[in-house]
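Let us practice reading a record.
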Amino acid sequence: MIGKLLGIEKPLVLAPMGFVSGGALAAAVSRAGGLGLIGAGYGDADWIRQEFKRAEGARVGIGFITWSLAKRPELLDLALSYKPCAVMLSFGDPRPFAEKVRRSGAKLICQVQSLAITRQALEAKPDVLVAQGTEAGGHGGERSLFALLPAVKDVAGQVPVLAAGGIADRRGYEAAIALGADGVLVGTRFSASDEALTAPQAKKRIVEASGDATVRTTVFDVVRDFDWGAITGRALRNGFISRWHGKEAALKEHIETERKAYNAAVERRDFDTALIFAGEAVDLIDSVLPAAEIVRRIVH
């Protein structure tokens, strides 16, 4: 069902990871039989244009952080001008944008992290839901996928549900299908792909990391001045986390000095300070591979 709905051969969708899922990666996943979604992140018009150009000739979609899109709704118009086959909305109320997405002909995908969020998303009449477990890299909720997925399926009715969080190999894919998923949405495994925008040094850390080395934290949002409230993001542990995790109030007191130092670390790709979002499935990632090979290994 999901294949016909999204026009794909394999029930696998690339997570629209900001600063990672660019046009080249999205195109590679789509050409391998899945669906590639460009990650619009916090929204930059020139970046969106650039990445759609890099995906030219491939059938791709795009994903937005919904609360950020609400501040710059014109970015949805820009994205829709490129005729994406799907638009994914996460973290925020999708209802104000749903009709515009539908009118464009794109499929609406809504990511959810709880049953309350699921019920709100269903009011937007999405074509697909994504149940995201807390195992996922990046921002997420508080429920693990194993329990959340069947619960979302039970309230979703006829709306297909993709599973996200902790899926990086065929075992995870098959477990998700056994729990009722119609397909999977995969992020961290593609962060360590040839086509990802991830810095080479960060790819190396992902390959070498253990799932024990991830933590859900807000320190990177504080230092980067992104207002996620109490929502945490799962990242690889590093020196910055060791210094400030659990001490966010103190970090805010020193924010000018720390932000300057953090931005300098990002520029020189010092990932003992800079952020690497990654999920618990990093245990299963032992090499950087072409995106097409990753798709093949996950889905029969």
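A brief commentary: The chain has a mean pLDDT of 97.
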